[in-house]
Design brief:
The chain is an alpha+beta fold. The protein has twelve helices and seven strands.
């Protein structure tokens, strides 16, 4: 269970203070042709500078929003628990002790040993060397889970509504493979790489999202093959050739199911296995019919600040990495609660 922000220090407060002037600088671009540097007789303008750092600034704005959101959650939890303690005529520690009494599990040495045996690997210190620290850590986790239950109960009566606006990035995703209705209130645009292990790892989360939200969510796939993966570009081109015959998603699922078979020969065999017209597929693939389109996705992704996969834009809000389903749920729930008719920002 996720530990409530009230029981961990506010993170990176200094980062907000340091980064804020950078955001102001980026926004204050009324005089975009203002010269900000010279190299001999060559002039560099503010608009050129802004274009150069746009990807980094977009990512930074998203991180600052996340920090502010976490701080608001922490402040709200502090307020709720302080008010509950005040109503009970108790201090916060005494209130928590009373609410948690008899509910927090006492972690035994046997519990810790079982946990250790399930997770130990090469290089793990002997159990006796870390026993006391492991028991303390597991006990703290158990206590935190019970504290979170107390807060969850308090939040039901006075839910938090965050009013700050999340930064949104416009993504040109028209014409790309998608599942879900075009008028869905939430659009999830994914930049992915068929040879990336983390992209494969996030697939179950995306399936859970589709199962949970149904027609409320539309998923759009875009290509971002990484140079380090020797068959990623081939796989991206093959996916588009499969899409030409209306078989993108079965081909997509098959490539992620076995990432060890992405050579050109494997990709052609897969087309045959899935019942595609192999003559058309092979011609499409060999002529690199859609490579320019793949590279256009890559260029757009770089311009948006993407430097790895998977990367997502949920109604234009960036989410990076092989995230658990809870991360998607949180953002999607916020979008549905704050703007049920949203979904246009990332959809062209």
């Amino acid at each position: 269970m996720q530990i409530s922000p009230i029981f961990r220090p506010l993170r990176a407060t200094l980062a907000i203070v340091i980064a804020a002037p950078l955001l102001c600088f980026s926004a204050a671009n009324a005089a975009g042709d203002t010269v900000v540097a010279t190299v001999g007789s060559h002039k560099i303008t503010e608009s050129e500078l802004d274009a150069k750092i746009k990807p980094e600034m977009s990512a930074l704005e998203s991180k600052i929003y996340d920090l502010k959101h976490q701080a608001l959650e922490s402040m709200a939890d502090e307020y709720l628990i302080e008010q509950a303690a005040k109503k009970a005529n108790l201090s916060v520690p005494d209130y928590l002790k009373k609410e948690m009494e008899g509910k927090s599990t006492k972690v035994t040495e046997a519990d810790a040993h079982k946990y250790y045996d399930q997770r130990k690997g090469p290089g793990t210190p002997p159990f006796d060397q870390i026993k006391s620290r492991l028991i303390a850590a597991l006990q703290n986790q158990s206590d935190q889970e019970e504290r979170e239950k107390v807060l969850a109960s308090l939040r039901k009566d006075e839910p938090l509504k965050v009013l700050i606006k999340a930064p949104r990035i416009e993504v040109a995703s028209a014409g790309h493979p998608s599942v879900g209705p075009a008028n869905a209130p939430v659009t999830v645009v994914e930049f992915s790489d068929f040879q990336c292990p983390f992209c494969k790892r996030v697939e179950p989360s995306l399936k859970q999202v589709r199962d949970k939200y149904g027609d409320k969510v539309r998923l759009v796939y875009m290509d971002f093959p990484l140079p380090m993966h020797n068959h990623a570009l081939d796989a991206a081109k093959a996916g588009r050739c499969a899409a030409e015959q209306g078989k993108f998603w079965p081909y997509h699922d098959a490539m992620f199911a076995d990432q060890s078979k992405l050579s050109p020969e494997d990709l052609k065999n897969l087309a045959k296995t899935l019942g595609l017209d192999t003559s058309k597929f092979n011609t499409c693939f060999d002529q690199a019919k859609y490579e320019a389109g793949v590279r256009a996705d890559m260029n757009q992704g770089k311009a948006l600040g993407i430097d790895g996969t998977p990367a997502f834009f949920i109604n234009g809000r960036m989410l990076v990495g092989a995230q658990p389903v809870e991360s998607f749920d949180q953002m999607i729930d916020e979008e549905l609660a704050n703007n049920p008719s949203a979904g246009k920002q990332a959809r062209n």
